[in-house]
Give the backbone structure.
Amino acid sequence: MADFAERFIRLAQVRSSLCLGLDPSADLMKLWGLDDDAEGLKRFCGTVLDAADGTVSVVKPQAGFFERFGPQGMAELGKAVDQIRAQGALSLIDGKRGDVPGTMAGYAEAMIGAGKGFGADAMTVAPYLGFDALRPALDRAVANGSAVFVVVRSSNPDGRSLQDARHPDGRTVAEALADEISAFNAACGPHTGAVGAVIGATIDEAGAKILARLPQSLVLAPGVGAQGASVADVEATFGPSLLRTLPSVSRAILREGPTVDGLRAAIDRYRDQVWRACERAALSPPSTI
Amino acid sequence: MADFAERFIRLAQVRSSLCLGLDPSADLMKLWGLDDDAEGLKRFCGTVLDAADGTVSVVKPQAGFFERFGPQGMAELGKAVDQIRAQGALSLIDGKRGDVPGTMAGYAEAMIGAGKGFGADAMTVAPYLGFDALRPALDRAVANGSAVFVVVRSSNPDGRSLQDARHPDGRTVAEALADEISAFNAACGPHTGAVGAVIGATIDEAGAKILARLPQSLVLAPGVGAQGASVADVEATFGPSLLRTLPSVSRAILREGPTVDGLRAAIDRYRDQVWRACERAALSPPSTI
């Protein structure tokens, strides 16, 4: 089976590289007039996935908004992943899991690849316990053709000071992580690696430097739309890296519900913008894909 | 209702401050001769909680080992939390959740306090996206008498380089987090705060300095037993802070299963060690509790 990067690039050619965040937050459910319970959650997800069917390459359920409803919410997360697969899209569970290696193996088994867990195509992980602690998840992604996206530089300003703290060798925390991701991917071969980076779409100059240290990795770029970065901003800051980037939009599309038509129109607007930005990127300087 | 710290301190007086990790890892389930499925998970948890009944103050389910079994595993996590409550102990879900503030609010709703989520007494969170991003969880803990433990310095060596990276003012990432926790707790009043720190029991001199910056916080100290720190080590490094510490043992007790008697004997051994260490700490220099 083709690995995550190949499947993504193939899908992006026909559907665009847009990643749709599936964020059943309390405020969006309220805005849609849904009850804040498991039944409301089920209706929210059903509507979003109907709207995304056949047009979106990657759907990214935000685990925290499912876990809000306890075990019932997690059951809905499982159903959402199944439906995303049935619709021929890729599922990326955004749970930012991170722990010591033994526990990390549990999270990897939970989130990606065949087995007893959710069986998504990709997951996000957070590196506070160190890059090496993440290895069980990275190895599992390589072994079963899925992907792991490591949070390197987040879209929220609160994260900057920690992510920009410096190691004794002068590199920032985020830069060192980017280097570790690149070294891991390079050791696996010359193709796009199984380990991607999460770099907020709202990046500044420091963020652009981090991106340059990731020549071979997929990049998940959350924060497009409501968090303040436009597709044009992403195009300007990501440059040719845009061709291996998943620009991720959540609220700016989801607030156009609760009708499937409203959501589809919003998805189409963002898809067109992403298409055009990628076309321009493909015609500009050579990229690594 | 008394807040988490009060309930913990009261329970610790009669049961000891020992925190028992509920870690249904693949290798422990195999060691116990259980099938690696939701039924095996249920039997594992039932046995551990039978053994802990009436003797353990805090039970800490490791979320990753439940999530391994997808939605069914998370349903068992919910049942485990309910049983811990029914047994009069405190539940601390160790999930190390962490995200931007909006999503963090979802995780907080999921894990602690009454509502539609798991309803545990405490949760662990990871700060890679910044201390300020955690505030929705900290505020919820204050509002409903639960607790949040922020991972500051983990028990695994992989985490050291990131946690010891330095801010421009010279403080390490872990030191700055300890200061933010202390400032948050101090702003809430002179009593033990709702925000605790996770500091691995395997700490070195740098870890001891971090502990000194947390005069008013509960401390969760995982890594006692199988990860290399003995209760005597914790006593030596934590000093009087031991009286507001939850020394957490998982594997070193759990590997004594699958019989309830075997587990009880191991729990008793660790309880006695923790009791005696706390007695000595109470008789030595003044502590902050």
User: Anything to note?
Assistant: The CA atoms of residues 215 and 267 of chain B lie 29 Å apart. DSSP finds 13 helices and eight strands in chain B. Chain B touches chain A through 64 residues (CB under 8 Å).
